Amino acid sequence: MEIIYDIHDWKEEAVVATIGFFDGVHSGHRFLLQEMRNPAKERNLPSAVITFPEHPRVVLHSDYQPKLLNSFDEKIDLLSKTDIDYIIVMDFTPELAALTAREFITDILSCRWRVGTLLIGYDHRFGYQRAEGFEQYVIYGRERGMEVIKASSYSDEWMAVSSSTIRCLIENGDMATASYLLGYNYRLKGHVVGGRQVGRLMGFPTANIAVDEKFKVVPRNGSYAVWIVVDGKKYKGMLYIGSRPTIASDDSLSIEVNIFDFSGNIYDEPIIVEFVDFIREDVKFDSLDKLKEQMEADKQYALSKLTDQAASG
Question: Global pTM?
Fold first, then answer.
């Protein structure tokens, strides 16, 4: 696996490639990349994914705020774990967006990156205003000696798999289904910041998290069973997202995690949270004692879910 950022580092004379933003690198994306292996093997050519560091709509509309399943670094890490040979990172610019599909295939894919075979996602469109489709891509590719192939459609047995579907599931707190479609536990990466330390007084010390990627999709308010990775070690825990209505008078959002069987000062340290399952909604309790009682129950539920996942591999 090699990551290419600069055209001057590109040495291949021909390549089988596909193109897209690949947010989430979910099971549908991996199906597409797996399918790309066949023409690459048949033609004895390397395979490549062409992707972008920023969401194209951010470049075209500066006020657009995407909801991302991955940061760029997370996406590259997930793509690098597939069997493709190259990841080509191409800046999406207004000039690129203004190219027609014919110009993009001719000037960028053929002349610049020397794509010999292009695999198109079954519902993917590109070029100015995405005005043309697969039939036109085949014609434009043929003009350059490029074979354009449409990928097979992919869906789970009972649900369509797409980045937008997964975002919706996460925003509704259905982490189990979201992770199933992703093929891995959904993650938030961040740093530990100072908090009010109320949880410590109740016997549930929490680490408050500031998420690194500002456009990352944050699950709905509530409590979750999670895995936590700190300093390379993985722990069981439960995470809370909400405005802390029992103990706070403002509406500021808090993301805080209670790490089971852990002690130590991790302020300012990087932290990764992997969501396993939703526990309960965010509610206001009549007293701190009632809240503590519920948190005890939450912990037992979280332990059960995490133990089950660990046992299932």
Answer: 0.90
Q: Tally Cβ neighbours within 10 Å of residue 176.
A: 17
Which residue(s) pair with 115 in the sheet?
15
Work out the number of other CB atoms within 10 angstroms of the CB of residue 189. 18
Numbers of helices and strands, H then E, in the chain: 10, 12
Task: List the beta bridge partners of residue 207.
Answer: 257
Residue type, 30: R
Tokens 């396993």 — which residue? 276
78-120 pLDDT, tens digit per residue, is 999 999 999 999 999 999 999 999 999 999 999 999 999 999 9
Beta strands in 112-247 (DSSP E): 115-120, 147-150, 187-193, 207-211, 222-230, 233-242
State the Cα angle at 171 between 168 and 175, rounded to 5°.
Answer: 90
Which residues fall within 8 angstroms of residue 16, CB to CB, at 6 or more apart?
36, 39, 40, 43, 45, 46, 47, 48, 115, 116, 117, 118, 119
> Residue 96 CB: number of other CB atoms within 10 A?
18
pLDDT tens-place string over residues 17-46: 999 999 999 999 999 999 999 999 999 999
Q: What is the DSSP letter of 112?
A: I
C-beta of residue 89 within 8 angstroms of C-beta of residue 130: no
Strands 233-242 and 254-259: antiparallel
Helix (H, G, I), strand (E, B) or coil at 150: strand
SS3 209: strand
Q: Are strands 147-150 and 115-120 parallel, antiparallel or unpaired?
A: parallel
